[in-house]
């Protein structure tokens, strides 16, 4: 059984307790314009261009039989409609200015990567986190890998947007020790506008996990102009307050570090450009949620 991943991060410390290995799966049903992993949205491999690495040897131009690569001014440009991702340009690019984002990996291969870091999990109380993208878009691979980890006594975390078939979530949750669950926008129409999907399935799944006794860590991306208004924060607090088994809530401030990746893969969604939330704004949001008796912190 294979999964499509775009990264494996070793020694991760912000994706659950302890030192972790985080595996990022490709494909997400949401299209948030602030996504810090834009290369994880599309459910297929993509070509990423890094013009600053190009040494202008033009080997890629000669190698591409479809004419998908062209020189424009001083940079190499890719016509993504012509590109069939054959990989020939990757083979001839010695400076790694052209890279493929997304590779297939078997459960066994992923398990071998995880096993190499087992000593760090045991010493720190860490484990494995499946992130993305959205891991539940690859349910068979996700379930099989989590099951293998549980069989070996490795702590498991699933980082999810919550938008999934409830039956799939139920099948996977058996092998999950902790859920990192995103809550963004409470107004359904506004949620559809910014993410492309309704939030009703997301909230249904969150309630179900809570009722089933699963430990949940809520993460709220604080996006200036979208999620940070007082009305939205009050509604988030009112919604979360009665839920059980909410371990804690983390406020994740917007930043622009992902913009370079967005440009390199020519992501289809228009990026949301804003300033980083001020400490005063973040503290205000934290105080609002704490009035609902929710254990809230700023950062991961």
Please, could you describe this protein's structure?
The mean pLDDT is 94. The chain has a nine-stranded mixed β-sheet. The chain has helices at residues 59-63, 88-92, 107-116, 118-124, 139-151, 166-173, 188-195, 200-211, 230-240, 259-265, 279-290; strands at residues 2-12, 20-25, 46-49, 69-72, 75-78, 98-101, 103-106, 127-132, 155-160, 178-182, 216-222, 246-253, 296-298. The protein contains eleven helices and 13 strands. With 300 residues, it is an alpha/beta fold. The protein is globular, with a radius of gyration of 20 Å. The chain folds into two domains: 2-43 and 103-298, TIM Barrel; 46-100, 2-Layer Sandwich (Alpha-Beta Plaits). Helix 6 packs parallel to helix 8. A hairpin with a 2-residue loop joins strand 4 and strand 5 (75-78). 33% of the residues lie in helices and 24% in strands. The longest helix is centred in the middle third of the chain and has 13 residues, at 139-151.
């Amino acid at each position: 059984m294979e999964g499509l991943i775009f990264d494996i991060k070793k020694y991760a410390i912000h994706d659950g307790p302890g030192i972790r290995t985080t595996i990022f799966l490709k494909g997400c049903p949401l299209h948030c314009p602030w996504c810090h992993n834009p290369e994880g949205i599309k459910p297929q491999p993509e070509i990423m261009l890094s013009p600053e690495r190009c040494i202008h040897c033009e080997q890629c131009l000669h190698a591409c039989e479809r004419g998908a690569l062209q020189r424009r001014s001083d940079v190499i440009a890719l016509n993504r409609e012509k590109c069939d991702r054959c990989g020939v340009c990757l083979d001839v690019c010695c400076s790694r200015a052209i890279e493929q984002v997304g590779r297939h990996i078997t459960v066994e291969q992923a398990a071998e990567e995880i096993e190499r870091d087992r000593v760090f999990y045991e010493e720190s109380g860490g484990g494995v986190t499946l992130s993305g993208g959205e891991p539940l878009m690859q349910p068979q691979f996700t379930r099989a890998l989590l099951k293998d980890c549980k069989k070996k006594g490795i702590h498991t975390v699933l980082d999810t947007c919550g938008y999934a078939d409830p039956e799939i979530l139920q099948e996977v949750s058996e092998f999950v020790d902790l859920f990192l669950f995103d809550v963004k926008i409470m107004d359904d129409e506004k949620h559809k506008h910014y993410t492309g999907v309704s939030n009703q399935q997301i909230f249904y799944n969150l309630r179900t996990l809570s009722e089933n006794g699963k430990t949940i860590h809520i993460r709220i991306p604080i996006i200036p102009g979208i999620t940070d208004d007082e009305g939205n924060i009050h509604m988030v607090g009112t919604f979360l307050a009665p839920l059980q088994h909410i371990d804690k809530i983390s406020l994740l401030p917007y930043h622009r570090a992902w913009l370079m990746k967005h440009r390199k893969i020519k992501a289809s969604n228009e990026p949301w450009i804003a300033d980083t939330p001020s400490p005063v704004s973040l503290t205000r949001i934290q105080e609002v949620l704490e009035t609902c008796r929710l254990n809230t912190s700023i950062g991961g």
